[in-house]
Design a protein that fits this description.
With 444 residues, the chain is α+β, with helices and mostly antiparallel strands. The protein contains 16 helices and 7 strands. Helix 6 packs antiparallel against helix 7 and helix 6 packs across helix 11.
Length: 444
Amino acid sequence: MPTIELLGGKVQIYQRGNSRFWQARASVGNKQRQFSTKQELQDLAAKAAETWYFSLQGKNQAGVLNDRPTFKKAADQFLKEYGVITEGERSEKWTESHAIRLRVHLLPFFGNLPLDKVTPGKVQEYRVHRMTTYAAPNAHSKSQHKPKAKPPTRSTLHDEVVTLRMVLKTAIRHGWLEHLPDLTPPYRTQGKIVHRPWFSPEEYKQLYEAARANAKAPERAHYRWNAEQVYDFVLFMANTGLRPDEAFNLQHRDVTIAQDESNKPEILEIEVRGKRGVGHCKSMPGAVRVYQRILARAKPAQGESRRERQLRRKSGGEPPAMPELEYPKPTDRVFPGNHIKLFNNLLERAGLKIDRDGKARTAYSLRHTYICMRLMEGADIYQVAKNCRTSVEMIEKHYAVHLKNTLDATAINVMRKRAGKGKLKAGARKAGELTTELDGDGAD
């Protein structure tokens, strides 16, 4: 079928031999463009082609008709590269979190936008969008939970902007973007000095006493092994300063009971594997007894289940022999389970789950407690940072800044000695006599 011209030849519609739909083509923005009208009748196809042409002209005049790569293309390239390049250096959950942020929030807002249109103003519009639409259902989310009743926190928005920055840097590396726009939030004031949730010495004593009482008399008899593990976990973490993931990755072959120096109590020398790769840690002497208890504690025996017992009784079989006690092996984990529910229930019963600033305490709070207590005892901040596999800057920012023990009262309460009242009067008298003599000499 011949080509039909519309709008004075600016638009042409035609049909391909293998398609029943009419196609349209036009030259807009110095480029030939094609479009399927999805119409079988000529009149309807002509109207659809004219509408398509006018929309292209409008976009061209508004400056949004751009054929350069879009944000979605850069995001797809980033996801393709990130998991492969950082394999073994970043956790799978962290890699997956970038994909979730892109799918749920960033791509719906920036997806079809050309990369050069991702400006600081557009990023600020995104922040406002996230702070005002959090209560509306998100069609891109796979979560079954209801929309949140509170706007996203500062840290949530920060993580989303981090993902956005990584995508834009990917575009720069591939030559799709010339420079990185300014992504810092405007109107930003200096943040408040806040400390991470920890247990003060009094609260820590309350916690381990509650854990010890629970280990001696658990709610149910078959919870005894778990309750004892939680009690030792609290003491072990507060005497080593390990991160929770480091503690859960710890195997018995990574722990050695040693004597640091002569005539000094024994400590634990630990080979740590976690967030910062392989590191080393030397514990407080209090961790040795705790670890010896863990070594001497047999693994929980796996007897017959309730279902197996019912079937055995119906068949009239004999009860099985009790399994032999099995103790930890060098390749076993020191803490086989995380016992999150038991630990949180312990905090709730002791009234320690929330600190005075309204922040929830977790297993990480035991690491913060270790650092704060070492600083309160006057330990060298560099050695504490080295032992905890972190930086002095992080400790000064999040721990030392709120501890009163880091302030030296003798260096602060310095007062200059003042002269006595008698000495001042004598000095004033001499000054007056000298003035009189000078005035007399001038009168003569």
